[in-house]
């Protein structure tokens, strides 16, 4: 094994503008969240492969002899990611007891790990390792937790197998890979996402890989080179919803009222493009209050559009009402119908206002965090640079 120990992290994601409209050929803007997933890989001499996922109470170990049966007979170029090996996925499903359709979070996370591990070490003796992953992201909230997990797996295992070099130098605290290596990480992370979700768009793993903001249109993903770091509140209403059902609901409404709904989708598209223009200006000229005024107006307009197309929810209305009472502007992010929302914080917003707003939202039964959007994608860390509480959690396993 090329690397004996590696510590990496990747961010979650939120949709800033364009959710649902993107399904109908409009622009969406996806941004990284400064809530991250952390992975610590350590080589061992136990003859076992151990996977520890304390967020979902999953702790597994396999003897290397159990996993060698999945090594392919032929060796290919691991930098060139081939289409997902359906036969290998099928065999691994049987191995983890998911062949009967029991595709819960634990089984999907296990499958993604084993698939990438076996595939990347296919040309050599399988190494004995312990991989521990812990996340600041809630699972199943539409915040890209599975993609952040897949990106971390890909980055760490690609380095451990020698496909890409670790970017961290002796004097660095954090480091990022070069563009070519990020492309490889993203490709393998997408394989993990395919195992977990079946037919993902690729947006979530791209945000986890590159960070910042991405423009998504008609299947094409373009990372934007520079975006400002924006403070936000992220609120999870904890109202469950089905993305599939909500997407179908929007499609039905468009088919029923095309003359009404098409202009709404065009307006959402214009909101995304206008927001992108404003954010670009904020990186090239002094940031003014007017920039934030426009961003707030776009948030309000888009939230009204999302209600019009049928993906609002009373809990999201409560979020908008509670934050507006404090002079703050909010919108849903993701599928809607519950789920999560984001609230923009201006630079001059007093900490007492933020704390009072967070408390008001928690009093509504919501989870709420102050965080930021637009931060870096996947990174390697020195152990000295990792937040003390994160290292303490991961050190337990």
User: What structural category arises from helix and sheet content?
Assistant: alpha+beta
Order of helices and strands: EEEEHHHEHEHHEEEHHHHEEHEEH
| Distance between the amino and carboxyl termini | 21 Å
Largest sheet: 9 strands, mixed
Q: Which residues form runs of ≥5 with pLDDT under 50?
A: none
Shape: globular
H/I helix tally: 12
Percent range of helical residues: 40-55%
In short:
By secondary structure, the protein is of the alpha+beta class. It contains 12 helices and 13 strands.
Characteristics:
397 residues; alpha+beta; 9-stranded mixed β-sheet; 4-stranded antiparallel β-sheet; 13 strands
Structure description:
- The protein is α+β, with helices and mostly antiparallel strands and 397 residues long.
- Helix content is 42%, strand content 22%.
- It has 12 helices and 13 strands.
- The protein has helices spanning 64-67, 86-96, 105-120, 145-160, 179-197, 203-210, 243-256, 258-284, 289-308, 314-324, 351-363, 388-394; strands at residues 5-17, 28-43, 48-53, 58-63, 129-135, 174-175, 213-217, 220-224, 230-236, 329-333, 340-345, 367-373, 379-381.
- The strands form 2 sheets. Strands 1, 2, 3, 4, 5, 6, 7, 8 and 13 form a 9-stranded mixed β-sheet that branches. The protein has a 4-stranded antiparallel β-sheet with strand order 10-11-9-12.
- A hairpin with a 4-residue loop joins strand 3 (48-53) and strand 4 (58-63).
- The mean pLDDT is 92.
């Amino acid at each position: 094994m090329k690397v004996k120990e590696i510590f990496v992290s990747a961010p979650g994601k939120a949709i800033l503008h364009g959710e649902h409209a993107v399904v109908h050929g409009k622009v969406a803007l996806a941004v990284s969240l400064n809530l991250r997933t952390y992975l610590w890989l350590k080589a061992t001499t136990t003859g076992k492969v151990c996977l520890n996922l304390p967020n979902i109470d999953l702790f597994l170990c396999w003897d290397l002899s159990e996993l060698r049966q999945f090594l392919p007979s032929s060796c290919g170029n691991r930098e060139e990611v081939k289409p997902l090996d359906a036969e290998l996925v099928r065999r691994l499903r049987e191995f983890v007891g998911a062949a009967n359709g029991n595709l819960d979070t634990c089984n999907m996370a296990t499958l993604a790990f084993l698939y990438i591990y076996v595939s990347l070490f296919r040309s050599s003796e399988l190494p004995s390792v312990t991989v521990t992953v812990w996340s600041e992201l809630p699972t199943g909230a539409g915040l890209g937790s599975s993609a952040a997990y897949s990106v971390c797996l890909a980055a760490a295992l690609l380095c451990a197998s020698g496909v890409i070099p670790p970017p961290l130098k002796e004097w660095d605290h954090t480091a990022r890979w070069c563009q070519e290596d990020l492309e490889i990480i993203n490709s393998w992370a997408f394989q993990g996402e395919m195992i977990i979700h079946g037919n993902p768009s690729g947006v979530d793993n791209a945000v986890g890989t590159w960070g910042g903001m991405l423009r998504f249109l008609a299947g094409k993903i373009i990372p934007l080179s520079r975006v400002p770091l924006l403070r936000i509140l992220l609120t999870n209403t904890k109202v469950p919803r089905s993305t599939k059902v909500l997407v179908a609901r929007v499609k039905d409404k468009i088919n029923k009222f095309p003359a009404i709904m098409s202009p709404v989708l065009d307006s959402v598209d214009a909101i995304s493009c206008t927001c992108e223009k404003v954010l670009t200006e904020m990186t090239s000229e002094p940031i003014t209050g007017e920039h934030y005024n426009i961003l707030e107006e776009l948030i309000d307009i888009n939230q009204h559009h999302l209600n019009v197309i049928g993906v609002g929810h009373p809990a999201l209305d409560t979020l908008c009402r509670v934050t507006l009472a404090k002079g703050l502007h909010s919108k849903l992010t993701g599928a809607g119908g519950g789920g999560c929302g984001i609230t923009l914080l201006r630079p001059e917003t007093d900490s007492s206002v933020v704390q009072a707003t967070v408390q008001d939202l928690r009093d509504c039964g919501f989870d709420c965090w102050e965080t930021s959007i637009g931060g870096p994608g996947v990174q390697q860390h020195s152990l000295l640079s990792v937040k003390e509480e994160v290292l303490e959690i991961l050190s337990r396993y």
